[in-house]
Write a structure and sequence with these properties.
- With 849 residues, this protein is α+β, with helices and mostly antiparallel strands.
- The chain folds into four domains: 212 residues, P-loop containing nucleotide triphosphate hydrolases (Rossmann fold), CATH 3.40.50.300; 181 residues, Dna Ligase, domain 1 (2-Layer Sandwich); 188 residues, D-amino Acid Aminotransferase, Chain A, domain 1 (2-Layer Sandwich), CATH 3.30.470; 179 residues.
- It is 34% helix and 23% strand.
- The protein is built from 30 helices and 36 strands.
- Strands 5-4-6-7-3-8-9-10-11 form a nine-stranded mixed β-sheet, with helices on both faces.
- A hairpin with a 2-residue loop joins strand 17 and strand 18.
- Helix 3 runs parallel beside helix 5, helix 8 runs antiparallel to helix 9 and helix 16 packs antiparallel against helix 18.
- The N and C termini lie far apart (80 Å).
- The model has no long low-confidence stretch (mean pLDDT 88).
Length: 849
C-alpha cells in the first residue's frame, strides 16, 4: 500500500486511529441527525480541496444542502421521485462520467424513504453503487439516520461498504465509533474515539465506555418503512374522511403508480380499505403493475356500478402480487445490475439482452422472499395457479404489451418441494421474458427503450375444475367493447365482440395451429362470420388446452375425447353433434361409434344469459374508462346452467377509429385490380397509397425444409428494416406470425411491424389458410401499430385476385439485399408507384389497384 493510496479524513487524530482512508473506500456514517453528518463532512471536504481532489456532491434529499456551491465543487441534482431504477441509473452514469479517483459526498440516504417507502430499495441502491465507486478508486461519504432502518438493511450496508462508523454527540462531545474498517487493524481501532479538535482519544476505560453507550438509544428490531406506512394507514381507517383520502392517495402512489388516467380511476373507485386489502396480499414492496391494477379496477367498477346485474355472476378472486421491488432485488442480489446497466444503453440494448436473460433464468431469491413464496403455495394447496407478468407499463392507456411477456401455468401437483421449485422457476421465466426479442423491439418501436419498465407479477388461481385427470374452465376468451373489425354491414360495432374457446384461454389469445376460436358479435351472438356450410366444422375448435394433473403440465386434448368426460354441466351448451359426420357414419354402418361433435357454442349463445351479460359488462367498463376496453375472462357452469364469469384482465383497447367514408373505385375491368373482396379485413376505412409490395410465393416456400422456412421469416425482417419509412404491403400464404411453418411464415411481429398492410392468402393446394384473429395478441399488435390487415380467399365467388399484377414486374430483392439471392424464388419485391388499397366498413368492400 503506497502513501499515495492513503487519504486523510481531515481529522489527524482519527486518521491515526483507523490508519487513514484508502482509495476505493465507501464511508458510511450512522448519525442522529443530518446536522451531525454535515459537521463530519466539513474536515473531509476541506482536506480534499487542499489536496486538489475532484469533489462531487450528489444532491437528492429534502434536507438543507450539505455543501455550498463553489467553483471547486460539482453538484448533481438527482430526482429520487422518479423511482429506484431511474435514480440508480442516473447515479451510475454520473460515476461513470466522473471517472477514477473522484471524491463524493452523498445526501443522507434515509431521505430516500420519502420517495421509495422501502428500506429494501435503499439497501439495493447501496449494493449497486458502492462496488462501482470502489472499482474506480473513489472515496464516497454516505449517511443513514440511526434507528431508522431495519437490521437487514444495516447488515447489507455493512457487508458492502469498506468503512462503517457510528457518530455520536453526548454531553456536547463528539464520538466516532468504528464498526468496520476493511483491511486495517490496531488494538484500539474499534473503541469509540472522543474527537477534540484534531485529536481522537480512544475510550478504552470500561467506565467511560459504559457511561457513553448506556445513554445511547438502540431500538428494537425495526419494521421496514413500507410496513410502518401501512400500519399507520390501518390506524387512519378510524379517522376522519379527509385523513383517509390523503392516506389512500399516498398508498396508491406507492402501489399503483404516478399520475395517469388509470390512477385517476383507481382514486375514484378504490377505498382506503380496498388499498389495504391489496397491500395485504403483496409479496415484497413496490408497484403491483398494470395487469394487476387493470383486473382489480375492472372488478371494482362492476361491483360498485353494476349493482345486482353482475353480483351473482362474478367469480371471486384471491390473487397475490409480487411487488416490482422484488424484481430489482433479484437482479441486484444476484450481481447482475452492472450487466443490466450495460443492456440499458443504446449500444447494449440488444447485444447484452441474451446474456441477461440466461442469468435471470438461474438466479436465487432472498430467504425472506422464499418464505413468502412457501406461504403462497401453502395457501393455494394443490390448486393450479398462473404466474403472469404485470409490468408497470403493461395494460395502460397507450401500451398494451399484449403477449410480449410470458405467463406460466403451475399445475401445482407433486411434493411441496417440487411445487415450490416449479413456482420459483415460473417467476424466473416471467422476469427473463423482459429480455425477449419481441418485448425489446416493442419497447424500442414504442419509444420506451429507456423507460423504467418495472416487472411486478400477478399470481392467480386458475379458474376451472378437475374433470377426470385434467383441469380446465368451461369457457375462456377475450372481449372487446368496440367491434371495429366487423364482417358484415349489419353488425353493430358498439355492441362489442368476444373471441371464445372451450378450455383454457391460451387458444383465444394465440394464433393456434389448425384451430379457430368462435367470434361472437354481441348484438347478434349466433351470427357467424361468412363461410360455406360445409366449412362449419373446419373453422371450429378441434383441440382444447388443459392442465394435465397426471403429467403436471399444460397440454392439449382432442375435443371429442374431452366431451366424453363428466364435465359437470350440460355439454350441449358448447358443442353439437356433427350431423354431416353422423350421416356418413350411418351410411358406412358405424352405428356403435360416438358421433363427433362441433364446438359451435350455439346453445350457449341462444339459451343462456352469457352473451347479454358480457355485452353489458363490456359496455359498463368502456363507459367508465371513457375508452374502448379489452378483457380476458373465463366462465364455468353448474348442472342447472348457472354460470360465473372470472374477469382476469381489463385494459384500454388500442384501437383506431373508423376513419372517414371512402369513395370506392368502380370495378370496370377486374384485370385492372390486384385484388378485390367482400369482408375479411381489419383496420377501418382506408385509402392508402402503396410504395412496395413484398410477395411470398406459396409453392416454393412450401417446398423448403423447416430451417429454410425460418430463414425466409428472417429475410422478411431484413426487408422491413430496409424499407422502413415506405408504405409496404406484405402478402403471403397462410398465417403471418404462426409458430408452425407449414401454416404460414413464422415471422416475429417485430419483423413485420414496419409494414403498412399485411395480407394473408389462402392456398388450397398448399394447405395454407388465413385466420382473422380478432381479439388475439396478433390482432392487438396490428391495431396498435396501425397495420391494415386483409385475408384473400382465392377462388371464392366474391374474390378477385391477380398475383401476376405483381409478379410480372421486376424482382428488386437482390437490388435491395444483395446477399439474399438464394431467396429470390420465394420472395418477390416490386415497386408499385400509384398503387392504392381501399376499404369501406359499411359496405365491407375491399380492393387494391
Amino acid at each position: 500500500m503506497g502513501l499515495q493510496d492513503k487519504v486523510s479524513t481531515g481529522l489527524q487524530g482519527f486518521d491515526q486511529a483507523i490508519d487513514k482512508l484508502r482509495l476505493g473506500d465507501n464511508v458510511v456514517w450512522q448519525v442522529d441527525s443530518v446536522s451531525n453528518y454535515k459537521q463530519i463532512i466539513g474536515p473531509f471536504v476541506e482536506q480534499a480541496r487542499l489536496d486538489q481532489r475532484k469533489l462531487i456532491y450528489v444532491r437528492f434529499g429534502n434536507h438543507d444542502p450539505l455543501l455550498k456551491d463553489s467553483p471547486k465543487l460539482t453538484t448533481y441534482h438527482v430526482d429520487a421521485s422518479q423511482g429506484f431504477e431511474r435514480f440508480a441509473t442516473e447515479v451510475h452514469q454520473i460515476i461513470e462520467q466522473e471517472g477514477r479517483r473522484a471524491f463524493y459526498v452523498f445526501d443522507c440516504l434515509t431521505d430516500l424513504l420519502q420517495y421509495w417507502y422501502s428500506d429494501l430499495m435503499i439497501g439495493n441502491f447501496f449494493k449497486v453503487s458502492c462496488p462501482f465507486l470502489y472499482e474506480l478508486d473513489t472515496i464516497a461519504y454516505f449517511a443513514i439516520i440511526r434507528n431508522a432502518h431495519t437490521y437487514s438493511t444495516i447488515a447489507g450496508i455493512r457487508e458492502t461498504t469498506q468503512v462503517l462508523l457510528d457518530l455520536y454527540q453526548f454531553k456536547e462531545h463528539v464520538y466516532i465509533h468504528p464498526l468496520k474498517v476493511w483491511n486495517r487493524y490496531s488494538p484500539t481501532m474499534f473503541f469509540p474515539h472522543l474527537i477534540q479538535g484534531q485529536e481522537a482519544v480512544s475510550i478504552t476505560s470500561s467506565t467511560e465506555a459504559a457511561e457513553l453507550f448506556s445513554h445511547i438509544h438502540r431500538g428494537e428490531e425495526r419494521l421496514d418503512y413500507w410496513n410502518v406506512l401501512f400500519q399507520q394507514a390501518k390506524e387512519a381507517l378510524n379517522q376522519d374522511e379527509s385523513l383517509q383520502q390523503s392516506t389512500k392517495k399516498r398508498l396508491m402512489s406507492v402501489l399503483i403508480g404516478h399520475e395517469s388516467r388509470m390512477l385517476e380511476l383507481c382514486e375514484e373507485y378504490f377505498t382506503l380499505e380496498d388499498i389495504l386489502a391489496i397491500a395485504a396480499r403483496e409479496i415484497g414492496t413496490g408497484f403491483i403493475g398494470g395487469k394487476s391494477v387493470g383486473m382489480l379496477l375492472a372488478r371494482k367498477i362492476i361491483e360498485k356500478d353494476g349493482g345486482e346485474r353482475f353480483a351473482s355472476f362474478i367469480e371471486p378472486h384471491d390473487s397475490f402480487y409480487l411487488g416490482s421491488d422484488v424484481f430489482y432485488t433479484y437482479v441486484v442480489q444476484n450481481g447482475w445490475w452492472k450487466l443490466r446497466m450495460k443492456q440499458k444503453t443504446a449500444d447494449g440494448y440488444y447485444s447484452y439482452a441474451a446474456e441477461l436473460r440466461e442469468k435471470m433464468l438461474q438466479g436465487d431469491f432472498p430467504e425472506n422472499i422464499q418464505e413468502q413464496f412457501v406461504q403462497i403455495l401453502e395457501y393455494f394447496g394443490q390448486s393450479p395457479i398462473i404466474v403472469r407478468s404485470s409490468s408497470l407499463l403493461e395494460d395502460n392507456f397507450g401500451n398494451a404489451f399484449a403477449g410480449k411477456y410470458d405467463s406460466v401455468f403451475c399445475v401445482n401437483q407433486g411434493t411441496p418441494e417440487e411445487r415450490y421449485e416449479a413456482f420459483e422457476q415460473a417467476i424466473r421465466t416471467v422476469y427473463a421474458s423482459t429480455m425477449n426479442e419481441d418485448a425489446l423491439r416493442y419497447r424500442m418501436n414504442r419509444g420506451l427503450f429507456d423507460k423504467d419498465e418495472q416487472m411486478a407479477i400477478l399470481v392467480q388461481r386458475v379458474s376451472g375444475d378437475h374433470y377426470n385427470d385434467v383441469f380446465l374452465p368451461h369457457l375462456a376468451g377475450v372481449g372487446n367493447s368496440s367491434n371495429l373489425y366487423v364482417w358484415d354491414r349489419d353488425v353493430d360495432m358498439e355492441a362489442g365482440m368476444l373471441r371464445l374457446v372451450f378450455g383454457l384461454g391460451t387458444r383465444a389469445v394465440d394464433r393456434t395451429v389448425g384451430d379457430y376460436a368462435r367470434l361472437v358479435a354481441l348484438d347478434q351472438p349466433t351470427r357467424i362470420p361468412p363461410m360455406n356450410k360445409e366449412d362449419r366444422k373446419k373453422y371450429a375448435q378441434h383441440y382444447v388446452d388443459v392442465l394435465s394433473l397426471t403429467d403436471n403440465t399444460l397440454t392439449t386434448v382432442n375435443i371429442d375425447q374431452l366431451l366424453t368426460y363428466n364435465l359437470k354441466t350440460d355439454t350441449s351448451l358448447f358443442a353439437a353433434r356433427d350431423e354431416q359426420a353422423e350421416r356418413r357414419m350411418q351410411e358406412l354402418g358405424y352405428t356403435d361409434m360416438p358421433v363427433p361433435q362441433i364446438v359451435d357454442f350455439e346453445m350457449l349463445l341462444k339459451r343462456t344469459e352469457f352473451p347479454a351479460l358480457m355485452r353489458d359488462m363490456l359496455a359498463l367498463l368502456s363507459r367508465v374508462y371513457d375508452y374502448p376496453v379489452d378483457i380476458e375472462y373465463t366462465a364455468n357452469f353448474t348442472k342447472d346452467g348457472h354460470f360465473k364469469v372470472n374477469l382476469l384482465q381489463c385494459r384500454p383497447l388500442q384501437t383506431r377509429g373508423l376513419g372517414r367514408p371512402v369513395a370506392m373505385p368502380e370495378l370496370a375491368d377486374e384485370q385492372d385490380f390486384f385484388f378485390a373482396a367482400t369482408g375479411n379485413f381489419m383496420g377501418g376505412n382506408v385509402r392508402l397509397p402503396i410504395d412496395y409490395v413484398v410477395y411470398v410465393h406459396a409453392q416454393p416456400y412450401l417446398q423448403r425444409i423447416p430451417q429454410d422456412k425460418y430463414a425466409v421469416a428472417r429475410q422478411i425482417g431484413l426487408i422491413g428494416a430496409a424499407l422502413k419509412g415506405k408504405n409496404v404491403m406484405l402478402i403471403g400464404p397462410g398465417r403471418w406470425g404462426t409458430t408452425t411453418p407449414s401454416l404460414g411464415v413464422p415471422v416475429h411481429f417485430s419483423e413485420v411491424s414496419q409494414m403498412s398492410v399485411l395480407v394473408e392468402v389462402a392456398s388450397i393446394e398448399a394447405g395454407f389458410m388465413p385466420e382473422l384473429s380478432y381479439g388475439s395478441h396478433f390482432f392487438q399488435d396490428l391495431v396498435e401499430t396501425g397495420i391494415f390487415y386483409a385475408a384473400i380467399f382465392d377462388g371464392r365467388p366474391d374474390v378477385v385476385y391477380h398475383p401476376e399484377y405483381i409478379l410480372s414486374r421486376e424482382n428488386l430483392l437482390t437490388e435491395l439485399l444483395p446477399q439474399s439471392e438464394s431467396f429470390s424464388d420465394v420472395i418477390h419485391i416490386t415497386e408499385v408507384s400509384g398503387m392504392e388499397i381501399y376499404s369501406d366498413i359499411v359496405t365491407q368492400k375491399l380492393l387494391c389497384r
